[in-house]
Amino acid sequence: MKQSFLLIGISLFTLSLSGQEHKPAGNDRTIEFPDIPGYRSLVCDFHMHTVFSDGNVWPSIRVEEALRDGLDAISITDHIEYQPHREDIPHPDRNRTYELARKAAGESDLLIIPGAEITRSMPPGHFNALFVEDVNQLMDRDPLLVFREAKRQGAYVFWNHPHWTAQQPDGVAAFQDLHRQLLAEGLFQGIEVYNELTFSEEAVELAREHHLTMMGNSDMHGLIDWMYDVANGGHRPVTLVFATEKTPEALKEALFDGRTAVWFDNTLVGKASVLTPLVEASLKVEKIRGGLVPALEITNHSDADYILENASDFGLHNHAGILVLKAHQTTLVEVKTREEMESFTLRFRVLNAFDSPHTHPEIELRVD
Amino acid sequence: MKQSFLLIGISLFTLSLSGQEHKPAGNDRTIEFPDIPGYRSLVCDFHMHTVFSDGNVWPSIRVEEALRDGLDAISITDHIEYQPHREDIPHPDRNRTYELARKAAGESDLLIIPGAEITRSMPPGHFNALFVEDVNQLMDRDPLLVFREAKRQGAYVFWNHPHWTAQQPDGVAAFQDLHRQLLAEGLFQGIEVYNELTFSEEAVELAREHHLTMMGNSDMHGLIDWMYDVANGGHRPVTLVFATEKTPEALKEALFDGRTAVWFDNTLVGKASVLTPLVEASLKVEKIRGGLVPALEITNHSDADYILENASDFGLHNHAGILVLKAHQTTLVEVKTREEMESFTLRFRVLNAFDSPHTHPEIELRVD
Amino acid sequence: MKQSFLLIGISLFTLSLSGQEHKPAGNDRTIEFPDIPGYRSLVCDFHMHTVFSDGNVWPSIRVEEALRDGLDAISITDHIEYQPHREDIPHPDRNRTYELARKAAGESDLLIIPGAEITRSMPPGHFNALFVEDVNQLMDRDPLLVFREAKRQGAYVFWNHPHWTAQQPDGVAAFQDLHRQLLAEGLFQGIEVYNELTFSEEAVELAREHHLTMMGNSDMHGLIDWMYDVANGGHRPVTLVFATEKTPEALKEALFDGRTAVWFDNTLVGKASVLTPLVEASLKVEKIRGGLVPALEITNHSDADYILENASDFGLHNHAGILVLKAHQTTLVEVKTREEMESFTLRFRVLNAFDSPHTHPEIELRVD
Amino acid sequence: MKQSFLLIGISLFTLSLSGQEHKPAGNDRTIEFPDIPGYRSLVCDFHMHTVFSDGNVWPSIRVEEALRDGLDAISITDHIEYQPHREDIPHPDRNRTYELARKAAGESDLLIIPGAEITRSMPPGHFNALFVEDVNQLMDRDPLLVFREAKRQGAYVFWNHPHWTAQQPDGVAAFQDLHRQLLAEGLFQGIEVYNELTFSEEAVELAREHHLTMMGNSDMHGLIDWMYDVANGGHRPVTLVFATEKTPEALKEALFDGRTAVWFDNTLVGKASVLTPLVEASLKVEKIRGGLVPALEITNHSDADYILENASDFGLHNHAGILVLKAHQTTLVEVKTREEMESFTLRFRVLNAFDSPHTHPEIELRVD
Fold first, then answer.
1. What does the angle CA C162 – CA C165 – CA C167 come to, to the nearest 5 degrees?
2. Does B16 touch chain D (CB under 8 A)?
3. Element (H or E) spanning D129, and its range?
């Protein structure tokens, strides 16, 4: 084709590339997702350890990791029943890590949620209790009594790594009788679908069937930077909590209400009712040229590289049916609308988001 | 100073740079895909221009671009009927760019295919004729006579950018009567589905319906490095040709036989009969742990970031249902086989590969 | 030492690192130096070739390279006597490249200076004549007549690559009788000290002794991007011209007056009278803490990584005697003033700047 | 989940990451310098803290940091007299961190040297005692008695951060009477010239005058990765010890004998007797072209970007008088020898190495 077309091509492509928001890899590790209509999107990690159980750092390091990752809330959940450093730290008050973390957080706006890990063999396995009043009251030989005490204290409780091969050798999360009993008594409300480096689609299915809140956490014992190769752009699994405000109370209310999504491995997992608005809020569309083949710039204001399958009535002029919108970048999209339109709507399935083990939420982008 | 000194300068400087122990991003621009069973995978660009039509460089630059990109074959396809530099280059022999490119390629193993662009208004639009014997014979007012002469010379002919908005304002590739006549006479055999920065799913559909060979080319007038932002990892569109050997004859035979795939924008387009073996040849699987949850390392030896949808009987322990295998990296995949198995097979749909506008090839990975 | 000191250390170090101005490597290739008191610092390349002599690109590519590099002025200096593309471009008007470059520059603010390369065997070798009125008048068998015609046209003339081993086998630039005669007649005014990838300290010495203007140019035949590995942060040699304004007239006046510095290989070469203000203008100092060991942030607004030798009365608290101020970054400098001072002056020798083959300019940074 | 699972996670994840074919910046943090004739170059950090004094990590983290940095030896030197975590760790055995670190180092070849920090107000300030037999014996109100006990145990003792502004407000390291007395009694042998982020040229001068061994250490309380921005290529200060073999005994012998260099901020500090062989051992020269202007490739096998001032009889053809040889890269150097030579010697002053506050070692590179 001739020169004139070439020049248009250059200028559009340049626009697309110059749209980078980010600094060089490793420079900015903040985990970023936009708020959604009606809720703030709080980035949280509710599962981690310190020298007060079997972790390797003082609570202050967990706080600084969280600040560097831009988290809104953490809970340090040291094992209640497992204290391998007892020789050096002989009388651990189970509320101590919370106190030390609160002190370390100081004037920052990081929320520290009191928590602990109920650490039992299977069944029931390991559970985290958040928003507890006094962890020292959660020590009893009978796990049922411990769960009932947690409930009495108003705790939000979730099942940790139900797919952990040390307790579930085939890695397939499944309820046993005790889990059904706990559920029947209202003794837990959530379940981890991502833990550390692993995922469980069976846990996603259990969450759907039993209306459990989906959680994703680091379960950190060593250092976030090393486990997740932060220097090369990695990050920990987090639970995005959609809360009316950034307070412990609103956080707790959202967890009981199941308003979460889990973010790890470039994958979002949650109910479609939060995933669809989250992806739509991430994407800003600007029409930069009209006509028969209008041109749009779509800017992705989130950390996810969205993998979109075109489900619109229209084909694209500069992309095939799978469109990847890279994190914090602007992508040029030309649409073959076949006739000139004042406004139109693009529809996409978000392939790296799951509202069940095998289904994806859909989004709509209105172009005016 | 004169050219001879320049060349000394280049070779020494290159030596100096190649000594870097840590390769910075953007240093290695070679386009790499593995061979497939029975065929070599030749990386080709069959559409580009020089100062001898409306391009901005001497043919030697096109050759060096190709060498830097690691291409196996190129054709310089200057416009036959469009010579805007005629004032300075008054009597262009239409075979001249081929001669100069051959000379520039020298002892390298880059194949230079003689070619030219038949440049007409729509219909029929622009067509490239490759493997022509004498381009000067392809000048006649009647396009039909030109196409017939090309056929007489044994040329392989393909329709360029059928979706070019300068000739097809809505960007929707479609046959007109003249195209059907050309096809009926066997006067062209291929069609571009990617051209420069644009894609046409309608062209993919036309290729399927009419057994046309799918092509993807740069149509370069300026510089590859600038148009495709090579400094940041970009590359030109290329046609992968699956040929029995790296010779012009085998290349021509493969083109007439429709054995191509097109690579651009992290997308592969072609028939499933070549896409499936291409993706399978790209991936090497090594079992590094057995048991109930075996662990595999899958190494991707191609330039594509493969976006795979798990279609296996098994879930994964460390990934959700969409698995991205990054180019030239090794990815750990843990599989929940539920029982210990000596060997098993994983199945995936390759979402960034298309054998029709909306369908994807499937691959199988055998694990022993 | 105790915790309290550690925390101060962290915050200062972070300040230093966060001071990066630049985008990722390869993204921004503009060559940037600040203006100096009384003059604009114009970034220029006065030596390059196109298909109209022995180069490989159309003049428009030279213009776009210059625009991408952020240059203020270029001159395309095709060989007058060497026309290897004569077979295809049979009657080259020697003013043609200037016309085509002017047209390509269009509405941009890039200055195109008419020029040509007088291309003779040694002596006198190759010379560039800039600001010529009609290059076609510069063709005569006797080089003296050509130089006199250039002078008649008001040209600024400089000796190219006096150290070129094809003409000076030991690479040691030296005058022969003809050069002295040319100089005596006022027929040239400048000399290249950097050409393409090479440097001549003997040329620097000749410039000093004979009051010649120092020049540094690319002498480009192929592509800037390839010769200088622009993808990895490289750039061409340039002549910084310190002119009263950005006009051809002011540029010419500055060249005749010797107000240049040459920039390549992280090295600046020129008279101390321009180097000292150039480095001082590059550096902004901000005192961020007072006391016995005041802390400064020094921001380097130039492309040079300045290598400074401390020549102050004071030692530094966080650096040894050699301080490197990286391009477009902010560096924390703590000074041991031994007593509290309202204001003080730091002095440095700039080791990567040369005002003679072996001496460096000095700078002063006032701290208030 | 418990620690055992974490370790599986790490090892698999590491396997996955090591499969990358293109190593991104920041992936390889090993500190690398070559051995010198007669000695191994051991990379050491002899000053750091854990939760057992005022640090924030368990000793195992210090061991893993050291392994990731490729160190040969570390000493954890918790404060003897300062125990801010006493409330949680009530009865700290002062030898405990050594025991835990030894256990964490396991089968690795990292040497763990027993050590502790004698923590006093000025004078004498803080001193580290290495190779101690029982730290618990080093507690006495009178510092002299503590130093004598350290000597009785055979310890190697060095003065920490003599320029610490909390104890020396002007940052100028200087002896007081007590220091002279300690020295007269042979109670310390070394002095830090780099500590954490700071440098003292007065400490370098004291080392020279009093034959003290020069030390450089991190004094880490938090995390190496954060303090030194390891993600972007930073590293801790280290003491390079030139020992006959990699054993605690040889290390101790070298420290008493003063065979060290300190590496930080792209600066090496030490005696010329070790710096000259260290730089020479870092550089391999290969002649790739002879003639009047021979071409060399100089490969720098160290982490230092060497800043060299040409002190040869010859000028360079492609560099000015300051030559920077980047870490782990090969640099082309063309030499103007003026006559053809079978062999010749290049001489350079190493400007980023110091054998006194203001003098630099010289090196010779033989070219055959």
1. 65
2. yes
3. strand D126-130
Please check whether residue C126 is in contact with residue C161, taking contact to mean a CB–CB distance below 8 angstroms. yes
Task: Write down the pLDDT at residue B20.
Answer: 28
Cα–Cα distances (Å) from D244 to D57, D191, D239, in that order, read: 33, 22, 16
Q: Which of A57, A96, A225 sits opposite D58 (nearest CB)?
A: A57
Provide the pLDDT for residue A60. 98
pTM > 0.95: no
Q: What is the pLDDT of residue C28?
A: 86
How many helical (H) and strand (E) elements, i.e. helices and strands, does chain D have? 9, 21
Containing H/E element for C273?
Answer: helix C272-282
DSSP summary character for residue A228: T
Phi/psi at C170 (5° precision): -90, 0
Residue carrying structure tokens 């592509």: C223
- Other CB atoms within 10 A of residue B341 CB: 14
Place of tokens 């790739």: D288
Q: What is the CA radius of gyration of chain C?
A: 23
Distances (CA, A) of D243 to A358, D30, D246, D258, D267: 61, 19, 7, 10, 21
Characterize D223-256 residue by residue with b for buried, 16 or more Cβ atoms within 10 angstroms of its Cβ, and e for exposed.
bbbbbbbbbeebbbbbbbbbbeeeeeebbbbbbe
Measured at the CA of B190, the angle between CA B186 and CA B193, to 5 degrees, comes to: 150
pLDDT at site B237 = 98
Check whether the bond before D248 is cis (ω within 30° of 0).
no
Smallest Cα–Cα separation from C215: which of C73, C350, C39, C55?
C73
Residues 296-355 on D with a CB inside 8 Å of C are 307, 309, 315-322, 324, 334, 336, 338-339, 351-352, 354
Task: Please give the average per-residue pLDDT across C272-299, as a whole number.
Answer: 98
Q: Does D87 touch chain A (CB under 8 A)?
A: no
Torsions phi, psi for C230 (to 5 deg): -60, -30
Q: Percentage of chain C with pLDDT > 70?
A: 93
CB B119 within 8 A of CB B81: yes
Is the Cβ–Cβ distance between A157 and A148 less than 8 Å? Answer: no
Name which of D336, D299, D334, D329 is nearest C229 in CA terms: D329
Task: From A238, A284, A244, A245, select the one nearest A261 (Cα to Cα).
Answer: A238
Task: Write the ipTM.
Answer: 0.93
CB contact under 8 A, B166 and A2: yes
Q: Look up residue C198 and give its amino acid.
A: T
| Of C26-35, C280-289, D202-211, minimum mean pLDDT range | C26-35
> The tokens 């990690």 sit on which residue?
A45
Residues 254-293 of chain D whose Cβ lies under 8 A from any Cβ of chain B: 288-289
Instruction: Please report the beta strands in B317-356, taking only residues with DSSP state E, as ranges in sequence order.
Output: 322-325, 330-336, 344-350, 353-354
| pLDDT at residue C4 is higher than 90 | no
- Return left, alpha or beta for C284; rule: phi > 0 is left, psi -120 to 50 is alpha, else beta: beta
CB B153 within 8 A of CB B187: no
Contact (CB<8Å) C170/D197: no
D195-254 residues touching B, CB cutoff 8 A:
none
Mean pLDDT, 10 residues at a time, chain A of 368 residues: 34 33 56 98 98 98 98 98 95 93 98 98 98 97 97 98 98 98 98 98 98 98 98 97 98 98 98 98 98 98 98 97 98 97 97 98 97
Residues in chain D where the model's pLDDT stays below 70: 1-27
Supply the DSSP string of D186-225, one letter for each residue. T---EEEEEETTEE-HHHHHHHHHHTPEEEEE--BSS-HH
Per-residue tokens: A67? 């600040």
Question: Of the candidates C236, C182, C317, which has an alpha carbon nearest to the alpha carbon of residue C46?
Answer: C236
Distance CA D281, CA D35 (A): 7
